[in-house]
Amino acid sequence: xxxxxxxxxxxxxxxxxxxxxxxxxxxxxxxxxxxxxxxxxxxxxxxxxxxxxxxxxxxxxxxxxxxxxxxxxxxxxxxxxxxxxxxxxxxxxxxxxxxxxxxxxxxxxxxxxxxxxxxxxxxxxxxxxxxxxxxxxxxxxxxxxxxxxxxxxxxxxxxxxxxxxxxxxxxxxxxxxxxxxxxxxxxxxxxxxxxxxxxxxxxxxxxxxxxxxxxxxxxxxxxxxxxxxxxxxxxxxxxxxxxxxxxxxxxx
Length: 252
Hints:
Helix content: 10-25%
Distance between the termini: 52 Å
Number of domains: 2
Number of helices: 1
Number of strands: 12
Oligomer: single chain
CATH architecture of the largest domain: Beta Barrel
Shape: globular
């Protein structure tokens, strides 16, 4: 009997590290990603229905937060292209304590209809979570940045648009809000304001407001309103672009 007890104890000790390892493996942070498609109603430089696609991914571990996003839009009206844009961003946060963090961020934009060949923004600064719990999140960020932009091209009538390339320093002010309405539904809102340091009359404002609800473990329905305001747009382009998107998001 004593021999059996010793053997059972040895087996339990051997199994314990394995169980602990499996538990750690289960708790290991994973990438949370999603891909979505939908229809878009735009007002501004283009007024039509068009197709959109987006990709989101992110990961949180220890004191680190990493997020990437990309979305594209393409549309035609009576055979004429009236929308063609691509936007991408990446941000890394390093938590300094439970609420304060430092961040680095890169944004890129191409928009044929707004005559933007490219706009690249690199920024870094500090952020703070005013509210951070399972139901609600509210944060704000501020920091210096650098913008490189080229605008110009050809309008739908074949007229050449004056081409301009400029680089300047900016200050980025941003905030983000999320709220869980239920276990399966949430709303979010974000905005950022980026003026040129040497000319505060030259600025960009980006804003977004959305709602999302789950219809299964992996599929969400979402609708969101995106707005971009450029105080000094390319010649022939409008200052404001408004986009309403409704579609399906698949999580994996």
